[in-house]
Automatic annotation (TrEMBL), chains A, B:
Stretches assigned to the Glycerol-3-phosphate dehydrogenase NAD-dependent N-terminal domain: 7-169
Biological process according to GO: carbohydrate metabolic process; glycerol-3-phosphate catabolic process
Protein name: Glycerol-3-phosphate dehydrogenase [NAD(+)]
NCBIfam families, A to Z: glycerol3P_DH
EC number: 1.1.1.8
Length: 334, 334
C-alpha cells in the first residue's frame, strides 16, 4: 500500500531542531511530503511574524536558521486543518486543551507522532502522552524518543540517534516518520512499541541524573557504566510491570542516549551543592530539568503502588535530588 | 551438593586488586576457603621476597597493601600444587607454557577461572582464553569479565561491577567464584555463558576506543551513547556469529563497563594526534592498550572470513587506530 503525500503540521514551537529537520526533509522528499510545513506557534508579541520573516526562533535555538518552507501560524486549528501528519512538541500542560481545540477540526486521514517529554502521572495512574493524544483525538499516535537530542545534530552538527515507536499494524506510517526525521547526523530507527519508546525516552532522563551524580563525585567511567546498566534494568522492569505489550528489546537494542543536560545539571548539583531549582534558574534559563521532574513523578507513582523498594536506583536518585540524601550514597542501596 | 573448602592459587601477579580481594574474601569466608592464598609471581630480582615481606607489589599497584595471607611463590607448580581454585591472570603469551608446566601437577579437584584479556586469534581461528586453559589442563574453566576494573574498587574505593561467566552445570563453582570476588564496591554477577562474558570483556575494549574518539572530538554524550549502543550490537552480532551457545542477554543485561584507560587513551589519540604506540609509552608505561590490540585481532579475523563490512564500527575503529583514517569520520560509515 502506497502512502499518499503527507502534509505536515508541527504543533508547538519549542523544538526548532525538529522544525528545521522536518522542513528540510519535507522539501527534499517531495514525493512523500507537501513542501510547506505548518508550525503552530503560541503567539507572544509578534513571534509568528518574526519567524516568518527572519526564519529563526530567538526564544529557543537563536542561531538556527529555519527553512523558509516552515510557516508559523498562531491559530492551532488553522495550522492543523489540512495536515495529515501532526507532530506534537508542546509542553505537556497544554496538550489536553490543544487536543480539545483540534478535535473535529482535523483531516480524517490525520495521524500523529508525540515528542512530548516525560510521563503523565495523575490519580495514581501513569500514561504516556502518545496514548493521551490518541485517545483525545481518536487518531493513531506514535512516539519519538529523545527529540531534544536533535539539537545536537542540527545546532552543533553532531551525530545522534533516536527511535520511532509505532503502533502494531502502522508500519507504513512509521516509515513516513522515519523519512521525515532521518538525516545524515540524526539517525532514526523504528520499533513497533510506542509505550517502550516513550518510557525509554522519559526514564533515561532519570538515569542520566544518576550518571551525572557519578561524574560530580568523580567516580569514573566504570561506576557510571554500572549506574547506567542498573538504570536500564530498572527502566525495563518498570515498563514491563506497569504497561501492556512493551518489548524488552526496546530498552536494550534501540537508541537510548543517556546524556545531555540532565547529566550535566546533576554533575553541577554534586559539585556546587546548589538545589536543582537554583541550577534550573542559572543553567536552563528557568526551564525545568526533565530528569528530576520524571524522577519525582515516578517516585510518587511507585509510592502509590507500594513498589518503591523494587526500584532502588530510582528511589536513590529521587532522594538525593529532593530529600537531602548525600550523593555519595548513590550506590549504597543497590 | 555442598562445595568443599577451596584452596586458592592466583597464577600471575599482574593484578594486585584481584589478589587483594581474593585474600580478603578467603580470610573472611573461612567456611568456604583456606586462609592462605598462593600467588605465582614470575621471579624478577627478588620480587617474591619483597611481596612476602612488605605485602605490596611495587611494579603494579604500588599503593595497595596486600593481605598477609596472600603468599608469593616463584615456582608455578608449587604455587598450584594443592590448589582447587586456580585464577589465571597471566599475560596471554605465557598461558600455554604455564599450562604445560601445570598439566599433571594439579589436584584432581582443580577448576579455574580466567581473567586473561583479549581473544586468541591464530590461523584464522578465534578462541577465548577460558577454552584454551580448559583444553590445555582438562579442567572446567570459567571467565571473569573486566578484572582490571577491580582496580577502581580497590585502589580508589569506587563502585564497579563485573560478571562471572560459567559453564552449564557448573553453577556451584560459579557461586564460589562470586563469593571469592564480591565486595561492597566490586559487585560480581554471574551467567552461564563463558564465551559471552569473555567476548564482552574483550570487545568492549574496542568499543571504548570508539567512545574515546567521541570524547576527543568533543562530540558530546549523545554521540557517545550512540557509539556505545552500535558497538554493543556489533559485539553481540560478532559473538553470536562466530561462537556456539552464546546468550544474547549477556551483552545487554550483565555488566559491560565501557571505560577506563581504553577510552582515555583514545581521547588523547584524537586530541594529541600521537600514535597509540607513543601514547602507550607515555601514558601506560609501555604496556599495550587492550582495546586497540583487540581491534587489530578482530579486524584480522574478520578479514580472513570476508566479514569486515558486516561490522562497520569495528572496521572504522581499526582504520582510525592504525590506518590514518581521520577520527572525524567515526560515524561516516555507520
Amino acid at each position: 500500500m502506497a502512502i499518499e503525500k503527507q502534509k505536515v503540521a508541527i504543533i508547538g514551537s519549542g523544538n526548532c531542531a525538529i522544525a528545521k529537520i522536518a522542513g528540510y526533509n519535507a522539501a527534499r522528499h517531495s514525493d512523500s511530503f507537501e513542501r510547506q510545513v505548518n508550525m503552530y506557534v503560541y503567539q507572544e508579541k509578534n513571534l509568528t511574524d518574526i519567524i516568518n520573516e527572519e526564519h529563526t526562533n530567538k526564544k529557543y535555538l537563536p542561531n538556527v536558521q529555519l527553512p523558509e518552507n516552515v510557516v508559523a501560524i498562531s491559530n492551532v486549528e488553522e495550522a492543523a486543518r489540512d495536515a495529515t501528519l501532526l507532530i506534537f512538541v508542546l509542553p505537556h500542560q497544554f496538550i489536553l486543551n490543544v487536543c480539545k481545540s483540534l478535535k473535529g477540526n482535523i483531516s480524517p486521514k490525520a495521524h500523529a507522532i508525540s515528542m512530548i517529554k516525560g510521563v503523565d502521572v495523575r490519580d495514581n495512574k501513569i500514561s504516556i502522552f502518545a496514548d493521551v493524544i490518541q485517545e483525545a483525538l481518536g487518531i493513531p499516535c506514535a512516539a519519538l524518543s529523545g527529540a531534544n537530542i536533535a539539537n545536537e545534530a542540527v545546532a552543533r552538527d553532531k551525530f545522534s540517534e533516536t527511535t520511532v515507536g509505532y503502533r502494531p499494524n502502522q508500519r507504513e506510517l512509521a516509515l513516513s516518520y522515519v523519512k521525515l526525521f532521518d538525516t545524515n547526523n540524526f539517525r532514526v530507527g523504528m520499533i513497533d512499541d510506542v509505550a517502550g519508546v516513550s518510557l525509554c525516552g522519559a526514564l533515561k532522563n532519570v538515569v542520566a541524573i544518576g550518571a551525572g551524580f557519578c561524574d560530580g563525585l568523580g567516580w569514573g567511567d566504570n561506576a557510571k557504566a554500572a549506574i547506567m546498566r542498573i538504570g536500564l534494568m530498572e527502566m525495563k522492569k518498570f515498563s514491563l510491570e506497569f504497561f501492556q505489550n512493551v518489548k524488552p528489546e526496546t530498552f536494550t537494542e534501540t537508541s537510548a542516549g543517556f546524556g545531555g543536560r540532565n547529566r550535566k545539571c546533576a554533575e553541577a548539583f554534586v559539585k556546587t551543592g546548589k538545589p536543582f531549582s537554583v541550577l534550573e534558574a542559572e543553567l536552563l534559563n528557568g526551564q525545568k530539568l526533565q530528569g528530576t521532574e520524571t524522577a519525582r513523578e515516578v517516585y510518587q507513582y511507585l509510592s502509590s503502588r507500594n513498589r518503591v523498594d523494587a526500584y532502588p536506583l530510582f528511589r536513590t536518585i529521587y532522594k538525593i535530588s529532593f530529600e537531602g540524601m548525600p550523593p555519595a550514597q548513590l550506590t549504597s542501596d543497590l
